[in-house]
Fold these 2 entries.
Entry 1:
Amino acid sequence: MVVIIRETRNSVLGAALFLLASILFQFIPFLLSIQVVYAELSGPDTANEPLQSQNTIEATPANQNAQVKPQANIQCSELKQNLDKASKELQRLKQNLSDMEQENTRLKKELEKRPVEEMQTPALNKTLDTMKKELEGLQTQLTSIQNKNENPRDNNGIRWFMAGGGIFLIGMLTGFVFGRMKRKRPSLI
């Protein structure tokens, strides 16, 4: 029972970890792209850029911001869409995780409610069946032996009764015969 619970718990935890890892790997590129967009929107770092001439049109910050803003807006909107998708996916995965946890607790309760016979392995059930058959066979042997033992007791009782009755009859006959013989003899006195 403990092994089944552990396997169920491990499979649920494994699925949850897999879902969290997939979410994490989806957020890493998203976070990097947000960082790039933020760097582009904050403007060029003047300390790290080489000096450019002020006569060129590209060097002016207004022109750079003008070029960067449409691209930044497009990337920002894409990132917002990606963020929305990722947050929806995260909510869906959290819901799936909570559903799995509820299912896990329901299965644990159901497993605890099951009777012991259902939890036994097929080998134990097979052994139990063979033992039941042996017990039935031994019980039938016991009843037949008891019947055999009771029959001789009854026969012995009947035999003894008949023997006693026979001895009584023989005694009566002998007494009757010897009693008549005694009367027929004359007495000598």
Note: The first helix runs from residue 2 to 42.
Entry 2:
Amino acid sequence: MQHQTQNAFRALADPTRRDIVQMLATRDMTIAELTEQFDMTRAAVKKHLTVLSDGGLITVESRGRERINRLEPQGMVPILDWLSFFDQFWDDRLNNLKEAIERKDR
């Protein structure tokens, strides 16, 4: 699980990869379609897609000569699980602050 979380965060660390994830959230796209959206080579886009795939955030399906890139929503689960810890952390801290303020106001 730790390795999967590490790879997912690594994949999202780059703004280009975050843009790709957002694009794939709207529809599946080929490498050529994604390359059209960026000022970089097809090889550079392919490297980004490899990192996203290694992070479990996308899947790639071959259809004839085309490779279709698809967002893998389950790949976000390790990230969301990790972030949920901080939701609880801040909820606890804010509740403690609220209680301290209410005690002071009495």
Note: Residues 20 and 86 are 26 Å apart (CA to CA).
